[in-house]
Every structure is written in structure tokens, then in C-alpha cells.
Predict the structure.
Amino acid sequence: MKVTIQDIAQLAGVSRGTVDRAINHRGRISPEAEEKILQAAKQLGYVHRTRRTKTVDGARKGLIRIGVITQLGSAPFMVDVNKGIRDCEAELKGMDIELLIRASDRVDADEQVQMLGELADEKVEGIAIMPVDKERVRRKMNEVIQTKGIPMVTFNTDILGTDRACFVGMDNRKSGRTAAGLMAMLMHGSGKVLIITGHFGSAAANRRVEGFVSEAKRSFPQMETSGVSMSFDDSEEVRSIIDNAMRETSGISGILVVSSGQKGIGEAFSDLGITDHRPYVIIYDQTAGNEKLLREDVADFIIDQNGYMQGREALRILAALVKDGKKPEKEHFYTQINIKTKYNL
């Protein structure tokens, strides 16, 4: 079986992006980390792929290269997104298309700007990106698209004000409106809802919150939002936010967590001694941990975004664009908003 960058990353305990930087000697990591990664690669028998040779004018022969930039690489929902990317990578090899993957475990605008510059310098023919919604990322994307002529497709998260070709992912505002409707059914349209997001810099999470709040105000005026807190996608932060909110604010009867860290919900209920009559809970992404929360009656609904299709389809659309000149048929390719309970897992 062929050894992949993901195999090396798991053995070395680092991200795929860190492995890529080590085996291609791109710097930005410590010598100790690079040595650890190279030793893991050697242990697994990894064979480094040869880059395309250059012609006199610097153009590559043979392979087409596409860049991929992701964020929050260690978040549970990224398991499906990364699987979609890996499966598509196997398909694209047969089309002489190679992926250059830059993965980050953070939501870091400066890091994304640097990654975009690196991929442009590598003369990739296209870039698929999960953008951080910051002005400097927006400016850099437009610079690369307009001055370098490198088309981009956004996936999972989108960013307004760029010349990207299209977006592949969930209609996050609509999913937020869906969450509001579900919560209103549970709460009979009345009560306080605590909202927890991961990062205020996440466009996807922000639009979920916007959709929920706008629909609640429009259709369920008796359903009150009891603040929006940022957890950094960390379960301990989620636990602390719920613990403090439930102690300090009376009448919280609903909790919406629009990003990761959901494990902290059950831990907070345990800390508070809540067994019966817990708040109603809606969470995002059908991960193994979230399925467990449904089965144990810690949560009521999962809203899933089909991360696998996001990772796969974004690359297929981009590959058709750069290889065959086939422009996307529409601007938004929305994945289904799937609602899960413990009865239909």
C-alpha cells in the first residue's frame, strides 16, 4: 500500500501541511520537527514524488499542479473534508494533476496570505481554499487571481468581494435558519438560547449565527438569544461557557453550538448536575463524537454539511476549469443540509 503524507503526519503527530513543508524543505518549521518527520517518512518507506522538470521559460511539463489551502485541520469535521480531498487526489492523478496541499490547524489570516504567496510562486494552475474571512486574505486572493491569472474555488467557507470562480459548501445562512426552526419546535417558540461559535473569523460560523438570529427575530419573536460566545473550537471552553451561562443567567432553555468542541456540552451538564430537563441542544457536523452525544441524549439534532462532498467536488470543479477550460455552471454549489437525530443515524 502506498504511503501518504497523511500516514506520515499521523505517525509524527503533526499536520499534513507541516509534513509537506518538511519533505519539500520549505522551512517554517524547527529542525527538530523536520528531522522527526523525515525519520517517520523513512520508517514508513515513503517515496517522494519527483517534481515536473522546467523548460527554459520556467513552465512545468507533464503534470498540472493545483494548490489546496485548508484551516482547522485537527477539527473533527475535517475528517470528512480531508477524505474527500484524498479520494479526489487519487482520481486526479489519472488526469496528470498533482495537489500541493497547505494545511493549517488554526484560523490564521496571515498564514493563509503566506500560503497563497507560496503557491503562486510554485506556479500552480489553480487553488482551492477554505478562506479566513479577513480583508488581507481577500486582497491577496484577488492579487493572485488578477495578476497571476490563477483561478480559485472556495469550499466549506466562502469570502465575499473576491473574483473566485465559485463556492462549494453548505448554505450556512439557510442552515442557521433551519436551526432556528428546529429550536422553535423544541422550545414551543419561546425561551432563551445560548449560541456558541468557534472563531469570530470563521465566515461559515458567522453566517450560521446570522441565519439563526434573523429567523428567530422574524418568525419567533419570543425566542431570545442569550449572547454569542467564542470557544476557539475547544471543548473545555464550551464547557466553561455553558457552565458560567447556566449559573449566571436564568431561563436558558436552548443551546446552539455552530462549530467544534461539542464534547464540552455533556461535561458542563455533568458539572451542573443536570440530568432531567436539560436545555435543548442543536449541534453541527455528523462526527463520531457528535453521534455519541445524540445517542446519549446530550443533544437533540445534528445539522450536517456533507464535508466529504465539499472537499471532493471543489477539486473536481477546479480541475475541469484548469485542465479543460470548463467554467463552473453556477456560482454556488450547495451541499444538502442534513438533519440527524438518534433515530436516523
Notes: Residues 50-169+307-335 form a domain with the Rossmann fold fold (CATH 3.40.50.2300). DSSP finds twelve helices and twelve strands in the chain. Residues 50-60 have pLDDT under 50 and may be disordered.
